[in-house]
Amino acid sequence: DCDWSSDVCSSDLKLKENTCHGDFILPFSIYKGTISTSFPSIAVHWHEEVEVIIVIDGSCDYRIDLDKFTINKGDILIVSPQALHSFNLIPENTMTWVSFVFNINMLKSSDTDGTLLKYIAPILNHEHELPYLINKNNSCYNKILSLIEYILFCYYEKEIAYELELKSLLFNLFSILYIFFLKFLHLHYIF
């Protein structure tokens, strides 16, 4: 059973992805793919997990919820939990990507703490929206790209205590996202 969240989703259950991303111990997986004439799209779907996608090469049309845009080599996409999303081929183009998908609940602790209340819970409750697209025009792009590369390296190498390091890197990613994109959203929380 892969339902690590008790959240109720209002999206069409027929569109829910039924893939188990990781396992109970480490709900984290990495995927690679290419959109081409032989595989022209990834159908509209949603999942409980956060997905971070980096475009390795090419371009394609991307839809997240009601927004549609073209993504290009180097772009970073962040898909919030329960967001509808899809890829579609642009004629005469291909697009190769790598992504990691993780259950944000892995960043929660058994005890309620300030980090959970100020940063993680508002994302889970859809009070704070993660940015969809980060590209070279964003001042934090190089910092986030380097962090994503290190997350991928950490997961592939699986050195001793890599789970701890992976979790710390995900916290770092959310820290950067709050600093550069969501910094004004948590000010109403007072401790």
Quick summary of this structure?
This protein has three helices and eight strands; from the N terminus they run βββββββαβαα. The protein is an alpha+beta fold and 191 residues long.
Would you write up a description of this structure?
It is a single chain. With 191 residues, the protein is α+β, with helices and mostly antiparallel strands. It has 3 helices and 8 strands. It has helices at 114-124, 141-157, 162-182; strands at residues 28-35, 41-45, 50-64, 67-72, 76-79, 85-88, 95-102, 133-134. Strands 1, 2, 3, 4, 5, 6, 7 and 8 form an 8-stranded antiparallel sheet that branches. A hairpin with a 2-residue loop joins strand 3 and strand 4. Helix 2 (141-157) packs antiparallel against helix 3 (162-182). The longest helix is centred in the C-terminal third of the chain and has 21 residues, at 162-182. The protein is globular. Residues 1-11 and 186-191 have low confidence and may be disordered.
Molecular shape:
globular
Major sheet size, sense and barrel closure: 8 strands, antiparallel
Helical fraction equals 25-40%
Order of SSEs, N→C?
EEEEEEEHEHH
Span between termini: 37 Å
Strand-residue proportion:
25-35%
Give the strand tally. 8
CA-based gyration radius? 16 Å
Unreliable stretches: 1-11, 186-191
Fold topology:
Elements: E1 28-35, E2 41-45, E3 50-64, E4 67-72, E5 76-79, E6 85-88, E7 95-102, H1 114-124, E8 133-134, H2 141-157, H3 162-182
Antiparallel strand pairs: 1-7, 2-6, 3-4, 3-5, 3-6, 3-7, 5-8
